[in-house]
Amino acid sequence: MSDFAQTVKQHADIVKIIGGYIRLRKAGAQNYNGLCPFHKEKSPSFSVHASRQFYHCFGCGQSGDVFSFVAKIENLTFPEAVRAVAQKCGIPLPKKEFHSAEEAAEAGLRRKLLDLHEAATVWFQEQLRSPEGALAREYLSGRGVTPEAVKTFRIGYAPDNFNALRDRFASQFDPETLRASGLFKWKDQEGGPPPPAKLYDAFRRRIMFPICHESGRVIAFTGRLVDSPSQPAGEKAGPKYFNSPETPLYTKGHVLFNLDKAKAAMRAMEFALLVEGQMDCISVYMRGIQNVIATSGTAFTEQQVALLRRQTTNAVVNFDPDLAGSNAAEKSIALLTEEGFSIRIITLDGGLDPDRFVRERGVEAYVAAIKGARSQADYLIERARAEYPGSNSADKINAMNYLLPHIRRIPHKLERDQFAHDAAQKLGIDSALLREELRQAALKRQDHIEPRGINNNSAGLLPFERFFVESACNDEKSPEEYAELHQNLRAFDDKTRAQSGEDWQRHVLPNLPAGLFDRLVNRAQKQDVEITGDTEEQKIFLRKVFLEAGELTKTHQQDMEIVRDLEIQALRWILGQKRAAISSASDPNSPETLRLMQEILQLERKLRDLECGE
């Protein structure tokens, strides 16, 4: 731990810091109790010790210091948590050391740009209240934007003037800052950058929506053109919506509109509502659904997914119903899936966007639509069926090739199998054949299925791990053995799943776990399956087991639940060992103890994911 972190920890009151997130009640000379924020409970099991500056939950086992608490509840890294606690305590952050004059200059420019954007926001707000902003106020009122919403989102107006903003700030900010802000334009100049007098306002006759960094600082704007039949803007006014260009502050694919206001609600509601436009976001937010964010009309990016993942891994997507919105929704689903998000999709009645829906149907109807959102599998399968509605083999293959990239992106095997099963059922394809074709496509790293997979009648081999898992669980094992079994299972699973065709005779059979074949024989005999002890007969029997697994094993979903149970038991045992090590540690602040706490946090997160079926 750095000297600065140690200083912050010495000055931080853990009771006060944690009390800012949850309600604590005194339960002794140094102890405070409350409901644990990390798991659901009705009676308090979360304890904070004032003098030791330590917290512990007797319900879920979470424990640590003030930094680990803030890091976990805010989904921050350790350095970010140190800074957050320092700011809560009013401790100045250490001055950043720059490696070069250029780096220092860039940091100085960013500070001045932040000041300029804040000043511009205030000025735009003043212009909206002025007589010249009357048409903009009329438009906002007609869209159901209340004065409260205008204040909350700091909405303003840029007047129809080429020089108003420039003249307001030319004497307050240097030319370099003005040019770099994205708030001004200029004609190409020969012989160097243009002087301030040659700059002109980029946003004119537009309602201004500030775009904020996650911290709440304004870093860019979206301008919506104000037009009406009585006062047309003209062809030279530009597009309806116009965003700030990329600047040292702003990269459009790295920002989510309203994340600064929505992140607390996301954590509380445990999901994010993702919409396409800023008006959609504002309209929904002001009606009480505050876990909503928008992409501001831009394509969803990996950087935005990473921002979102810091708050939640559950997303409900509600993009516009037109073709562009559907394509954007599909791309967003792909990115979110690759990062392990649980995704649902809303399709609103009447083809309405979220803003119009809540204004015409009411917020209760929209809440019902959120609750009725479809899973990504259902949504994508319906899109595939709409794109390829025929019942012939060619349409079935095309539909599956449309779905295959989405299925392969899903990180959890159980969810992939369930998606494939649902797709096969709704498209009229044999489920076993489809799973084998998906497996072959994955092995060959193909994004499509060969036509032979749907047309022929020869069955492929079913996953061998079904029998290994079921048989391995017949005997009771100690926690240590479960942990070892979990590791061996993964290695064995990868090895056997790579075999196909006749290779199972040469590769799979010699590597069967001890006693597994005898267990299969006993199970077969109980079901009146005749078998002898001859080696060739054993091979024939095993092949029969592979091809007719429905008679001799549970469903694939049940088998994968067994795998999950094994992992859960293994993780619980490992967590127990690490918690015991912390309990016996002589110094709760030693690097080794802090490392163990960090590992516990990661393992507990993984355990919760497994227990929730992810």
Task: Give the arrangement of secondary structure elements.
Blueprint: H1 3-11, H2 14-19, E1 25-26, E2 31-34, E3 46-49, E4 54-57, E5 63-64, H3 66-74, H4 78-88, H5 101-129, H6 134-142, H7 147-152, E6 156-158, H8 164-169, H9 175-180, E7 184-185, E8 200-201, E9 206-212, E10 218-225, E11 241-243, H10 259-269, E12 272-275, H11 278-285, E13 292-294, H12 302-309, E14 314-318, H13 323-338, E15 342-345, H14 354-361, H15 363-371, E16 374-375, H16 376-387, H17 393-409, H18 413-427, H19 431-443, H20 452-455, H21 465-472, H22 479-497, H23 503-508, H24 516-526, H25 535-547, H26 556-583, H27 591-611
Parallel strand pairs: 12-13, 12-14, 14-15
Antiparallel strand pairs: 1-2, 2-3, 3-4, 4-5, 6-9, 7-8, 9-10, 10-11, 15-16
Helix pairs in contact: 3-4, 11-14, 14-15, 16-17, 16-18, 17-18, 18-19, 18-26, 21-26, 22-26, 26-27
Walk me through what this model shows.
With 614 residues, the protein is an alpha+beta fold. It folds into 5 domains: 3-88, Zinc finger, CHC2-typedomain (DNA Primase, Chain A, Alpha-Beta Complex); 106-250, DNA primase, catalytic core, N-terminal domain (DNA primase DNAg catalytic core, N-terminal domain, Alpha-Beta Complex); 254-372, Dna Topoisomerase Vi A Subunit, Chain: A, domain 2; 380-455; 461-614, no CATH class. It is built from 27 helices and 16 strands. The chain has a 5-stranded antiparallel β-sheet with strand order 1-2-3-4-5. A 5-stranded mixed β-sheet has the order 13-12-14-15-16, sandwiched between helices. Helix 17 (393-409) packs antiparallel against helix 18 (413-427) and helix 21 (465-472) crosses helix 26 (556-583). The longest helix has 29 residues, at 101-129. It is globular. The chain starts with a helix and ends with a helix. The model is unreliable at 451-483, 485-517 and 523-560 (pLDDT under 50).
